[in-house]
Amino acid sequence: MATSPSSSVSAAAPTERYSGVAIHLHWLMAAVLLLVFLVGVFMGDLKISPTRVRVFNWHKWIGIVALALASIRLLWRATHRAPGLPASIADWQRKVTGAAHGLLYALFFIVPLLGWAMSSAKGLPVVLFGKIPLPDFVPVDKALGKTLEDVHAFFAYTLASLAGLHIVAALHHRFMLHDGIMGRMLPAHGRRRGS
After folding, report:
1. pTM of the model
2. Distance from chain centroid for Cα 80
3. Residue 91: how many CB atoms within 10 A of its CB?
4. Mean of the per-residue pLDDT values for the chain?
5. How confident is the model at residue 119 (pLDDT cuts 50, 70, 90)?
6. Pairwise pLDDT comparison (148 vs 3), residue with the higher score
């Protein structure tokens, strides 16, 4: 029986997958980042009101959760080897992939820390879930707060753009190249449906 080109590629696809913990952390982080970004965009158009204050607090709380998840994910990554890329991936692609992942991890920390610093500088302490006061790590300085607001927004959109490129690349591997790369990070049932 003849095999199609896509099936022969799939047959050579890498079988090594990320661990279950890494997969769950990846998708949980993706959901939290999407949520915090959408709340951030939504709150930008709100007029000063109790609702605006409430939504701003939600944004800060989700940002702190994202920061905690990033810390857990980095710790896990540092203590557990990621599966290697297949031999079919060119050296330049490996370098671009490594640089993109490194930048993503950096932004996982930079964006929420800038938001936290901005809140501190504006004299608006972060009280996690309205119960746990977190320390201010910059002094109150309204001018600094405005600068940090702009820098925070810039890096937030940079993170969103890079995450978008990551999604496009993953979909390209799954639906165009059929090389199994995306399947390594899918839950088991998603992988069986074809990767």
Report:
1. 0.87
2. 19
3. 7
4. 89
5. very high
6. 148
Give 77's Cβ-side CA count (13 Å radius).
13
Token readout for 36 is: 């915090």
Class of domain 5-192: mainly alpha
Tell me the residue type at 69. L
Residue 179: the pLDDT is 87
- Count CA within 13 A, CB hemisphere, residue 171: 6
Check the CA dihedral 86-91-93-98 and report its sign: positive
Task: Residue 186: count other Cβ atoms within 10 Å of its Cβ.
Answer: 21
| Residue 81 backbone dihedrals phi, psi, to 5 degrees | -65, 135
Other residues' Cβ atoms within 10 Å of the Cβ of residue 127: 13
**Cα separation, 169 vs 39, whole angstroms:** 25
- The CA distance from 58 to 129, in Å, is 8
Residues 160-193: pLDDT tens digits? 999 999 999 999 999 998 888 999 999 975 554 4
Strands 127-128 and 132-133: antiparallel
Is 101 exposed, middle or buried (CB count within 10 Å of its CB: 0-12, 13-18, 19+)? middle
Domain layout of the chain by residue ranges = 5-192
Scanning 90-141, the segments in alpha helix (DSSP H) are 91-121
